[in-house]
């Protein structure tokens, strides 16, 4: 199943994607499941399928995509989780994943504008596989970790590098409004299968700038879930953004910074194709 969150005629909703159409399940189930996170938390996929049979069909062209999970309690991002990216950044090898956080209100959906902040000239792309937790837990064993996954999506963890590099702490450069693109939809775990059998490709204006199989992750998805759930409980709807391959703009010669009007695509076959145009932040 593919679930998307969106607004239509000013109303927030979610639905089941069927080709170029979406069944407006949220309009039917709003009283019991007000958003997609509630569906995930309850495991109410059967109810969503039943509701889809009576829901209005909307064209994907008439909805405004929201982040797949608009209101996650936690978003964890993983740094330097592909060897190619670790090498290009000059980071030392480590026994543990590098974890930082992104705020939910920094997120945007598919086809929404990534914002180039007026205080920066160093906006970078980072195509990544996003993991949405379905069943929460604490100290989840690696062997059981994938059974806690609701599904997967595409993510562009767009990074404001000059602000990221102010200190050794990543937080400022990873949380500007309109920089965390998440979409276009959630593909349920049963349809995706092994997350290590995927590939992540990023394109800027049609040119491939990143491309690598997820099997090359230093810390696989199951390991990330086990590690993160050891220091904090994971809850349904929490998001793990699993790291970006090598090829980021900051480490190219010359650097490839995103500029107003650029189109960035994150393509994960079997999961989706996330597309966003870059727009300069308005003055004021």
Automatic annotation (TrEMBL):
The species this protein was found in: Nitrospirillum iridis
The answer to whether UniProt assigns keyword Metal-binding to this entry is yes
Q: Where does the Fumarylacetoacetase-like C-terminal domain lie?
A: 74-279
Q: Kindly give the InterPro entries that the UniProt entry links to this protein.
A: FAH, Fumarylacetoacetase-like_C, Fumarylacetoacetase_C_sf
Q: What is this protein called?
A: 2-keto-4-pentenoate hydratase/2-oxohepta-3-ene-1,7-dioic acid hydratase in catechol pathway
User: Does Ribosomal protein count among this protein's keywords?
Assistant: no
Sorted UniProt keywords? Metal-binding
Kindly name one Pfam family recorded for this protein.
FAA_hydrolase
A GO molecular function annotation here is: metal ion binding
- Protein family per UniProt: Belongs to the FAH family.
Q: Which PANTHER family match?
A: FUMARYLACETOACETATE HYDROLASE DOMAIN-CONTAINING PROTEIN 2A, FUMARYLACETOACETATE HYDROLASE DOMAIN-CONTAINING PROTEIN 2A-RELATED
Q: A GO term (biological process) for this protein?
A: small molecule metabolic process
């Amino acid at each position: 199943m593919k679930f998307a969150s969106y607004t239509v005629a000013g109303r927030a909703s979610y639905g089941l994607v069927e080709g170029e159409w979406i069944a407006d399940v949220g309009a039917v189930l709003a009283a019991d499941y007000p958003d997609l996170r509630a569906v995930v938390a309850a495991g109410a996929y059967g109810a969503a399928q039943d509701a889809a049979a009576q829901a209005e069909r909307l064209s994907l062209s008439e909805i405004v995509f929201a982040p797949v999970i608009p209101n996650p309690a936690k978003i964890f991002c993983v740094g330097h989780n592909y060897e190619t990216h670790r090498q290009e950044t000059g980071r030392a090898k480590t026994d543990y994943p590098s974890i930082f956080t992104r705020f939910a209100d920094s997120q945007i959906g598919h086809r929404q504008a990534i914002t180039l902040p007026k205080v920066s000239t160093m906006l970078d792309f980072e195509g990544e596989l996003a993991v949405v937790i379905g069943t929460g837990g604490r100290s989840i064993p690696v062997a059981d970790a994938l059974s806690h996954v609701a599904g997967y999506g595409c993510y562009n963890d767009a990074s404001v590098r000059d602000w990221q590099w102010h200190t050794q702490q990543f937080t400022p450069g990873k949380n500007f409004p309109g920089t965390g693109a998440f979409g276009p939809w959630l593909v349920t775990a049963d349809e995706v299968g092994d997350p290590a059998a995927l590939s992540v490709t990023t394109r800027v204006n049609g040119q491939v700038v990143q491309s690598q199989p997820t099997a090359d992750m230093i810390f696989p998805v199951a390991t990330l879930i086990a590690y993160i759930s050891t220091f904090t409980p994971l809850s349904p709807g929490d998001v793990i953004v699993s790291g970006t391959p090598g090829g980021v703009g900051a480490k190219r010669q010359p650097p490839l910074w995103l500029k107003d009007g650029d189109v960035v695509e994150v393509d994960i076959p079997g999961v989706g194709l996330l597309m966003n145009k870059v727009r300069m932040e308005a003055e004021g």
